[in-house]
Design goal:
Largest sheet: 3 strands, antiparallel
Order of helices and strands: HHHEEEHHHHHHHHHHHH
Distance between the termini: 27 Å
Low-confidence stretches: 1-5, 378-402
Strand content: under 5%
Number of strands: 3
Structural class: mainly alpha
Number of domains: 1
C-alpha cells in the first residue's frame, strides 16, 4: 500500500513563466514613474514580488489538500469570501471612488479576486454530485404538464446560481462591474461543462445580459464609454473619455512587428494604469506583435493544458474545476487584450499572472494549487492490479498523453 501523487509540471512551469514575464513587465512599466519619485525599484514590483512569495505558499498549501476535502472546504472558502466582500463595504479602503480593498497594513486585499476561485469550486461541488433530472413518462401535451415536468424542476435545480448572484451583487456594489461579469461568465463555463441544458443556458444568458444592460444604463459613465467608444478618435473625445484607449492603440500600432525595443516605450509615461489594466500595451509597444502573440500563446498554453487535463481525468469534480479555471484565465486574458487594442472599451480587467495585483496573483496561484490537488489520487490504494501490473503507470500515461 502506498500513496501515489500526481501533479502536472507543465501547468506549474507555464504559470511560473507567465508570472516571471509579469514581474519583468511590471518593472519595465513602472520604473519611469518610480524614477520620477526618486525610487530605483517601482513600488508595484516590490509589492508583486512579496505577493508572489505568499502566492506560492498558498498554492503549495492548496496542492497538499486532498481532493475530497475540497468538497467541504469549498463551502468554507466561499463563506470567507462573502464575509470579505461584506467587510469591504464596512471597513474597506476607497481608491478612485471605489471600495474594493481591505487594508491589512502589511498588504491590501481585494476579496473580489478570491471570489473567482470560490465560485468555481462551489459550482463544481454542486454539479459534480448532481444527478440527471427525472424525465416525464410521456412528452408534455399542454402547458400545465410542461410547467410540472420542465419549468418547475429547472427553477428548483437552479438554486446554486444564488451563490453566484450574491457574490456578483456584492462586487457590483463596490462598484466593480467588470469583475462581476467575469465571475458570471466563468460560472457559465462551469455550467456548460456540468451538462446544463442548452435551453437553461440560453435563458440564463438572456437574463444576465438584461441585468448587465440595466447596470450599464444606470451609470452615465458606463454608458458614455460604450456610446462614445466608436468616436474615441474624435477631437472631442481623444483627450477625454477616449484617452486611455487611443493612447494604448497608438502605442500598440507603433510597436509594429518587433517593437521599439525593451524599455523604449512611451505609453507607460502617459497611461494611468501602465502596470495593471494596460500592461499588455507596453509589451506590445516594446516587443511588437511578436511579444503580443507570445503573451497570448502563454495564456493559451495554460488554458489549453487545463482543458487537456480536464478531458483526461475521470473525476467529475476535478474536471469541472480544471475546466472552470481554464475558462477564467482564457476569458480574462482575451478581455484584457481586446480592451488594450481598442476593440472594446476600457473596463478594468487585468491580464492573468502578468498585471500587478497581489490579490489577483494569489487567487490565480491558489487556483493552480487546487488544480494540482485534484490531479492527486488523494487516498491510499493498492498500486498493482490482479495481473501484477503497476496501475500508477496507466494513470500517469493517460495524463502524459494528454
Amino acid at each position: 500500500m502506498t500513496k501515489s501523487i500526481r501533479w502536472d509540471p507543465w501547468l506549474f512551469w507555464l504559470a511560473m513563466a507567465a508570472t516571471v514575464l509579469g514581474l519583468l513587465a511590471i518593472f519595465d512599466s513602472g520604473y519611469a514613474r518610480a524614477a520620477a519619485d526618486g525610487m530605483i525599484v517601482p513600488r508595484e514590483f516590490r509589492s508583486q514580488l512579496v505577493s508572489l512569495i505568499g502566492a506560492l505558499v498558498a498554492a503549495l498549501g492548496c496542492w497538499l489538500i486532498a481532493p475530497k476535502k475540497w468538497r467541504v472546504l469549498s463551502w468554507v472558502f466561499y463563506a470567507v469570501t462573502i464575509l470579505g466582500l461584506v467587510a469591504v463595504k464596512v471597513v474597506g479602503t476607497e481608491i478612485n471612488g471605489a471600495k474594493r480593498w481591505i487594508d491589512l497594513k502589511l498588504l491590501m486585499v481585494q476579496p473580489a479576486e478570491f471570489a473567482k476561485v470560490s465560485v468555481i469550486l462551489l459550482l463544481a461541488v454542486v454539479l459534480a454530485s448532481r444527478r440527471p433530472s427525472p424525465k416525464p413518462p410521456h412528452p408534455p401535451r399542454h402547458w400545465a404538464e410542461r410547467l410540472d415536468w420542465v419549468w418547475i424542476p429547472r427553477v428548483a435545480r437552479s438554486w446554486p446560481l444564488i451563490f453566484v448572484l450574491v457574490a456578483a451583487g456584492l462586487i457590483v456594489a463596490e462598484p466593480d462591474l467588470a469583475t462581476a461579469v467575469v465571475i458570471v461568465v466563468v460560472s457559465g463555463v462551469v455550467l456548460v461543462l456540468g451538462g446544463v441544458s442548452r435551453g437553461s443556458l440560453a435563458t440564463l444568458a438572456l437574463v444576465g445580459a438584461l441585468i448587465v444592460g440595466v447596470l450599464v444604463w444606470k451609470e452615465p459613465y458606463r454608458m458614455d464609454r460604450i456610446l462614445h467608444h466608436g468616436e474615441r478618435w474624435s477631437v472631442d473625445n481623444i483627450d477625454g473619455i477616449g484617452y486611455q484607449t487611443t493612447q494604448s492603440e497608438a502605442a500598440m500600432a507603433k510597436g509594429g512587428v518587433f517593437g521599439v525595443g525593451l524599455g523604449e516605450g512611451r505609453a507607460k509615461h502617459t497611461l494611468p494604469a501602465p502596470t495593471t489594466d494596460f500592461i499588455s500595451t507596453t509589451i506590445a509597444e516594446e516587443l511588437g506583435l511578436v511579444g503580443t502573440l507570445g503573451l497570448l500563446a502563454l495564456m493559451g498554453g495554460i488554458a489549453w493544458r487545463l482543458m487537456t487535463l480536464a478531458r483526461a481525468t475521470d473525476d467529475r469534480f476535478g474536471k469541472l474545476v480544471l475546466g472552470g479555471v481554464a475558462g477564467w484565465i482564457g476569458i480574462q486574458a482575451c478581455t484584457n487584450i481586446v480592451m488594450a487594442n481598442g476593440f472594446a472599451p476600457p473596463i478594468g480587467v487585468p491580464m492573468p499572472f502578468v498585471s500587478a495585483g497581489g490579490s489577483s496573483l494569489m487567487a490565480l496561484w491558489m487556483a493552480i494549487g487546487v488544480c494540482q490537488s485534484v490531479l492527486r489520487e488523494g487516498r491510499e490504494e493498492a498500486t498493482e492490479d490482479e495481473t501484477g501490473r503497476d496501475r500508477r503507470w496507466d494513470r500517469r500515461a493517460r495524463v502524459s498523453r494528454a
